[in-house]
């Protein structure tokens, strides 16, 4: 697949087939994504990959976070149970969840550099995945900002920033593309010939 074709045709995937992506493919994707640019060669990305029975404690931690944040409040007990069950089933049906996290640098500039590098890593990952017919959803769900969630999964929230959870698997359905804004509305060129 050409680079432009991969960039244009990649879609965020919301529905996955149940089968796992082969371990060798996953290793290849996580490994080659590391060619992302990163300042000072810090390679700030870290990954926790939850799959098969490893999803159990992760899904439980997500549900506890949703409860803490009041997602199920205002509903009767029956409805709450159904909502929780719906989220649990939804998460269980996704073959892989990759939590991407980085150390928080106290220096704001370095923190931003590291965050940018991790995002470059994620984009590399999802483009490479697409080339292998593997779908990804880049998520920034509310539990990533819940310090207790980080504690629950064994990461000190004072030390680590949880950047994203990538949902990963073979696509069951590929959404239609969302149109992009013509770039002339966003690109302003200054070459000395612009009218004042
Ligand atoms: C930083 C970031 C966070 C995102 N978080 C979510 C999310 O939490 N849930 C979701 O459904 N999509 C999320 N997305 C995916 C976007 O919704 C998606 O990229 C956008 O709708 C364009 O669709 P496409 O990727 O198929 O072109 C996120 C994307 C980025 C870059």
TrEMBL record:
Domain (Nitroreductase): residue spans on this chain: 7-170
Keywords attached to this entry: Flavoprotein, FMN, NAD, NADP, Oxidoreductase
GO molecular function: oxidoreductase activity
NADP recorded as keyword: yes
InterPro entries found in the cross-reference section: NAD(P)H_nitroreductase, Nitroreductase, Nitroreductase-like, YdjA-like
Name the record gives this protein: Nitroreductase
Co-factor requirement: FMN
Family: Belongs to the nitroreductase family.
Organism per entry: Halobacillus dabanensis
One Pfam family matching this protein: Nitroreductase
């Amino acid at each position: 697949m050409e680079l432009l074709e991969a960039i244009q045709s990649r879609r965020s995937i919301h529905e996955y087939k149940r089968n796992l992506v082969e371990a060798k493919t996953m290793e290849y994707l996580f490994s080659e994504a590391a060619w992302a640019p990163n300042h000072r060669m810090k390679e700030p990305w870290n990954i926790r990959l939850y799959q098969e029975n490893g999803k159990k404690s992760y899904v439980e931690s997500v549900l506890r976070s949703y409860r803490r944040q009041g997602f199920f409040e205002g509903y009767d007990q029956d409805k709450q149970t159904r909502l929780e069950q719906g989220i649990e089933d939804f998460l269980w049906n996704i073959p892989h969840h990759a939590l991407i996290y980085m150390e928080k640098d106290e220096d704001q500039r370095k923190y931003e550099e590291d965050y940018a590098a991790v995002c470059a890593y994620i984009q590399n990952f999802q483009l490479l995945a697409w080339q292998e017919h593997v779908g990804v959803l880049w998520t920034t769900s509310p539990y990533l900002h819940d310090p207790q969630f980080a504690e629950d999964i064994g990461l000190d929230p004072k030390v680590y920033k949880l950047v994203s959870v990538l949902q990963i698997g073979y696509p069951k359905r590929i959404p239609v593309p969302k149109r992009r804004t013509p770039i002339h509305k966003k690109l302003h060129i200054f070459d000395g010939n612009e009218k004042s």
